[in-house]
Amino acid sequence: MLSEDINLNQKFNRHVPCLMILSLCCLLLTGCWDRKELNQLAITSATAIDWDGKVWTVSYQVVIPQSIANPNTGGSPGQQAPVMVFSTSGSSIRGAVQQSSLEMPRSLFFAHNRVIVIGENAAKEGISQLLDVYLRNSDSRETVGLLITSGEGRKILEQIVPLEKVPGAAIKNMIHNEDMNGSNFKQVSIYQLMMGIASDAPYTIVPEIVISGEGENNTIATLKKTFFSNKLRLGRSAVFKKDKLAGWFTPHEEYGMSWIRNTIKRTTLYFGCTPGSMDVKAALRVDRSTTKMKPIRTTDGRLIMHVDVNTVGTINENACSNDLTQPKDLHAFEQVAGAEITRLMTESFQAAVKKNLDVFHFADTIHKHDPTYWKQIKPNWDEHFAQLQFESHVKVKIARIGMSGKSFTEMTKDSAE
């Protein structure tokens, strides 16, 4: 028994120093030294940047918590709007943000900021200051979405959006939904713009957001209506060369670029019954698509960019006479769909060459495949891009044809006979 007591005392004595150290560490913990209560913060869901030629104007879409928490939102008289929008100005972007303390009872909190809308004048002036702010400040996140508008960015933030209480979140979800299901536009973050600036082809495509229709939906009373005279929608595509606006592309041209740049996730391709026909009567839901680019140097010194596209999809509309249960007709449909993709890519390539904007990042592809050759042509890449030849090979596979091989018109003809 004595030996057991001695062993217990020895073990206890060995653990005493550890317990004392742990106790001292607990005394050093001071808790959340920089904490802020929620009622001290103004949560910003969206911001806008404008430039009038002299000063920067930053607009903020601030969430009103008591309105968001109210389950009876419906535009009743006296109902408070879910957000408020106000602006501050300064000689720099951060200086404009600093001015918010002069008129806001709370500190602006940008960690939940969903989108930044840049006015066209600000985009032409250059947004290097904005990028610098997001690199330096811990309360700003580089994953925030980026959009551009041809007018003032503030006007976009003032719009009430149906189905969503917070307009900033609605805009973010709008571009995400298009990116995942339409592939005409791709959502772009501050981080992706920075990466684009650092690439061999410093071009980044940013979606445009516009107010379509007449008037403005900037009052809570508009939610009482079943029809809106205008709405927010995605428009053209803006091209940034480094940090400045360099040009615009139409949605049609941007769609062709998506096929070349391998950004097609899921979309619906519309085409006619014969190759080159503009009389659209069929639709292919693209379930999977991959694009590979390869630069080819010919013996006579020409540079060719070969683009190989492989697409798998499902027919979800057919008003043509083809009977898709027959292998011959099914193969013909695949050829027509492939020809349409080729046409879209060719027209987009021609539009980019005309504006001399390497939005496809062909420069990065050449650098990757042949670094030595890229070093030779890099100083005069704009000239080489203007003379670049484009070749494509498109393979379309229709995996499923739906529940009917023939169109409804053809089936009714057969039954009448």
A few lines on this structure:
The chain has helices at 2-28, 65-69, 93-98, 120-125, 128-136, 153-157, 167-181, 190-197, 251-260, 327-355, 362-369, 371-377, 381-386, 408-416, and strands at residues 41-51, 56-63, 83-90, 107-109, 115-119, 145-149, 203-213, 230-241, 244-249, 267-271, 282-297, 303-318, 389-400. With 417 residues, the chain is of the alpha/beta class.
Keywords:
palmitate; GMP Synthetase, Chain A, domain 3; lipoprotein; 417 residues; alpha/beta
Order of helices and strands: HEEHEHEEHHEHHHEEEHEEEHHHHEH
Cα distance spanning the termini: 108 Å
Strand portion: 25-35%
Helix count, per DSSP? Answer: 14
Summarize model confidence as the mean pLDDT.
85
DSSP strand count: 13
Shape: globular
Poorly predicted spans: 73-78
Radius of gyration: 29 Å
- The helicity comes to 25-40%
Structural class by SSE content:
alpha/beta
Biggest sheet features: 6 strands, mixed
Domain Spore germination protein N-terminal: 34-209
Membrane topology: Lipid-anchor
InterPro entries: GerAC_N, Spore_GerAC-like, Spore_GerAC-like_C, Spore_GerAC_C_sf
Keywords: Germination, Lipoprotein, Membrane, Palmitate, Signal
